[in-house]
Structure formats: C-alpha cells, structure tokens
C-alpha cells in the first residue's frame, strides 16, 4: 500500500510534465481575418464652430447705460427694427439747452434787423422828443428876446445864452440819433451769428448722440447672439447683438496642421451637434485655410464648410463635430490596420496563413481610415491575414489559427 501511495502522485507529475512538453512543442495559435472587398472611406474627424454665412454685428457707438432692450436672442427682426435704447436723459437736457440758446440768439438777430431792441429805440426816441420840445420852447423864448432887443428891452447876451443852449440841445439830439443808428455794429452781428452757429452745432451733435444711442438692426434676420441687459453699461465698440441669415451656415472646421494635406475643396463633410442628437447636416469644403493659427495647444487651419440649415435647428455659435470624407475607394480590398507590420528592413507587409504556415507578403497601401486600410498590392480577397500578435512570427512558422470577424 505504501508503494501505491507514492505511485499515484508520481504518475500525475509525469502526466503534467508530458502535457507541458507537448504544449511547448505545439504550433502557436494566431488570430486571423479574411481580406474583404468593399468601400473604404478616409474620414477626418475634428471639431468646429457654426456661423451664419451672412451676418452683421451690432455694436455700441457711444458710451452709456442700456435703458431698454427691444429684441432677444432667437427672434427674427426686420431691417431698421429697434434693438436697444441707451439712456438719453442727459443728452435730451443738453439738446433742450442748445435749442433755447438758438431761439434767444435768433431773437437778438431779428432785433438787429429791425434797428435794435424796441426798448433801446424807445428810450432814445423819448429823449430826442423831450429835447425837441425843449428846443421849441427855446426857439419861442429866443424870438421874444430878439423882439425885446429891438425895443432895447433886452440884451444881446440874453439872446446869445439862449442860442448857446439851443446849439447844445441840437448837439445832444444828433448824438442820440447817431447812437440810435449804431445800437448794433456789424461786429456785434458777427458775434451773434457765431454764437448761433455754435448753438445749432450743439443741437445737431445732441441729435446725433441720441441717434447713436438708438441701436437698430442693419439687416433683416435672426438675432442669434444678444447678451446685453437693461442697466448694463456700454462703451463704444461693445458687442450688442449678432444678426444673420441662419438658413445658410458657414462652419469653421479646425483641422490640425499635419492633417491639412488630406483636405481638398469640394470634399463632402458631415456635421453633427451634441445639442441635437441624431441630426446631421451635410456640406462640402468651400475654402481652405490661408494660415495656421493657435487653438489652445493645437496648431490648426480653419477649413470653411457651407451647409444648409433651412429649419434653423443648428444654432449659430454652436460648437459642432465635423467628419470630412477626404478619400474614398470603392471595390477595394480591405484589411484591419492591425494586420500591418514592418519587417527587419522596414518594408511594410502582412503575414497570411497558407497551408497551416505563415507567409510574408509585401503590401502597398491606399486609402486608410481609423480602423482599416486599402491594400493595393500583396493581398487578394479572402486571403487569411494574420491580426496583431504578441508572439514572434516568422515565415514558414507552423501555426494553428482562429478566425475573427473583420
């Protein structure tokens, strides 16, 4: 019995060792797939931003707080429709003051044209009238004195005194008449006209500022961006709203610099938006980038794609996904990219299974996408092409193989 106790473990150990030796000497197993014929599309997937093909930015042209907002994002507006009113209280007051100055100066000019202000003319005329009455009285008195002189009842000195007084009155009248004629000089009129021009300019300036504070839609379209609210303060140049025709959109697609060589005009593009799952918009490459620019840590060119958006469902300003169909090959022999290898000399090729052994084939590759490649030469349809393996594979290596779906 003791012998049997040791025989059983020894037999198990011997069996296990034999199995390991057999396993070690067994052909390695490889995965393979069959080359198939079909259409392969080289799709460049990236991101972009949608904007209207035709749009106008409405910007503030003067400083001031927003008094009233008359439109909002997503609404359609007509050309000339009021968008925003800025606070105009100070400008209204300034215009009223300027208009009052205009009225006052125009009244003064009318007075000049009528010979001066009525009060000034009346005062001078009153003085002349009183002097004329006094002169008439002196003339009467002087006549009486002269008659008395003829009778030796008065002296010539009395007559001379009256004549001197009459001459003084005449001189005073002439001075008043001269003053009446020059109540306003040409220089005075020139000063008033200059003041009038200044006041009228102030009115025009106030009206212009009022107009600049009334922001209107320069074109008809949809307000697709409007962030200002009542009470917000605007400086000249601040964005108030973007208005455009959203039925035709231009998508700026950001293509990394190394990939730009894969893009050409008229290539088809599919646009999707995470904000509206399940929808697709199609278009074509309309314009290639003229320069490379920084986008975060990327160096990209902006490829412009035009798409139709008749229902307006894709919102301008949306960050979108873009798939550019850069190349397409129909009737191509297609294999997974993981089948591709390079030999010790650097040649690209694949291993195929022939009669239970591996055979190396040099290949020439055409269209390539993320997962598959077109084989131009070296592989035929239905060839058993070996997939990626961690094992060291060599020509004529005997293998067992397991098919996997392509």
Major beta sheet, strand line-up: 2-9-13-11-10-14
Low-confidence stretches: 16-23
Average pLDDT score:
86
Distance between the termini: 59 Å
The domain count comes to 4
Number of helices: 5
The level of helicity is 25-40%
Strand content: 35-45%
Rg from C-alpha positions?
Answer: 52 Å
Indicate the structural class: alpha+beta
Q: Could you outline the blueprint of secondary structure elements for this entry?
A:
Elements: H1 2-25, E1 29-34, E2 36-59, E3 64-69, E4 76-77, E5 82-86, H2 89-113, H3 118-150, H4 156-181, H5 186-212, E6 214-216, E7 221-226, E8 233-234, E9 239-256, E10 268-272, E11 281-287, E12 293-295, E13 298-308, E14 319-336, E15 341-342, E16 348-354, E17 357-362, E18 364-368, E19 372-377, E20 384-386, E21 400-403
Parallel strand pairs: 1-21
Antiparallel strand pairs: 1-20, 2-9, 2-14, 3-5, 3-8, 4-7, 5-6, 7-9, 9-13, 10-11, 10-14, 11-13, 12-13, 14-19, 15-16, 16-17, 18-19
Helix pairs in contact: 2-5, 3-4
Task: Describe this structure as you would to a colleague.
The chain has 406 residues and is an alpha+beta fold. The protein folds into 4 domains: 29-40 and 330-403, conserved putative lor/sdh protein from methanococcus maripaludis s2 fold (Beta Barrel); 43-54 and 245-328, Efflux pump adaptor protein, beta barrel domain (Elongation Factor Tu (Ef-tu), domain 3, Beta Barrel); 62-87 and 213-240, OB fold (Dihydrolipoamide Acetyltransferase, E2P); 93-207. 33% of the residues lie in helices and 37% in strands. The protein has 5 helices and 21 strands. The chain has helices spanning 2-25, 89-113, 118-150, 156-181, 186-212, and strands at residues 29-34, 36-59, 64-69, 76-77, 82-86, 214-216, 221-226, 233-234, 239-256, 268-272, 281-287, 293-295, 298-308, 319-336, 341-342, 348-354, 357-362, 364-368, 372-377, 384-386, 400-403. It has a 6-stranded antiparallel β-barrel with strand order 2-9-13-11-10-14. Strands 6-5-3-8 form a 4-stranded antiparallel β-sheet. Helix 2 packs antiparallel against helix 5 (186-212) and helix 3 runs antiparallel to helix 4. The protein is rod-shaped. It starts with a helix and ends with a strand.
């Amino acid at each position: 019995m003791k012998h049997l106790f040791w025989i059983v473990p020894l037999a198990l150990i011997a069996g296990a060792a034999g199995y390991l030796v057999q396993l070690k000497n067994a052909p390695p197993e490889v995965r393979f797939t069959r080359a198939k014929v079909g259409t392969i599309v080289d799709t460049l997937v990236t991101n972009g931003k949608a904007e209207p093909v035709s749009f106008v930015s409405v910007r503030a042209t003067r400083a001031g707080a927003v008094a009233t907002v008359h439109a909002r994002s997503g609404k359609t507006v007509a050309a000339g429709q009021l968008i925003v009113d800025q606070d105009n209280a100070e400008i209204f007051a300034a215009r009223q003051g300027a208009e009052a100055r205009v009225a006052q100066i125009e009244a003064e000019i009318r007075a000049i044209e009528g010979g001066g202000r009525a009060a000034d003319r009346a005062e001078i005329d009153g003085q002349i009238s009183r002097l004329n009455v006094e002169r008439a009285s002196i003339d009467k008195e002087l006549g009486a004195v002269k008659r008395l002189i003829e009778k030796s009842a008065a002296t010539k000195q009395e007559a001379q005194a009256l004549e001197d007084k009459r001459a003084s009155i005449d001189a005073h009248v002439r001075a008043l008449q001269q003053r009446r004629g020059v109540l306003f000089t040409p220089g005075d009129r020139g000063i008033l006209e200059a003041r009038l021009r200044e006041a009228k300019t102030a009115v025009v300036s106030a009206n212009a500022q009022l107009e600049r504070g009334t922001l209107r839609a320069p074109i008809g379209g949809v307000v697709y961006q409007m962030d200002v609210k009542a009470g917000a303060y605007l400086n000249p140049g601040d964005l108030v709203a973007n208005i455009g025709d959203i039925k035709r959109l231009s998508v700026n697609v950001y293509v990394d610099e190394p990939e730009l060589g894969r893009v050409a005009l008229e290539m088809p593009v599919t646009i999707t938006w995470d904000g509206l799952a399940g929808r697709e918009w199609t278009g074509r490459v309309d314009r290639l980038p003229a320069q490379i620019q920084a986008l975060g840590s990327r160096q990209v060119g902006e490829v412009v794609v035009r798409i139709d958006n008749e229902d307006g469902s894709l919102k301008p300003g949306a960050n979108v996904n873009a798939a550019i169909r850069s190349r397409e090959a129909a009737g191509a022999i297609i294999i997974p990219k993981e089948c591709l290898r390079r030999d010790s000399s650097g040649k690209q090729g694949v291993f195929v299974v022939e009669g239970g052994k591996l055979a190396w084939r040099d290949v020439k590759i055409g269209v390539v996408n993320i997962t598959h490649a077109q084989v131009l030469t070296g592989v035929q349809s239905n060839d058993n092409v070996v997939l990626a393996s961690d094992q060291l594979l060599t020509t004529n290596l005997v293998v067992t193989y397991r098919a996997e779906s392509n």
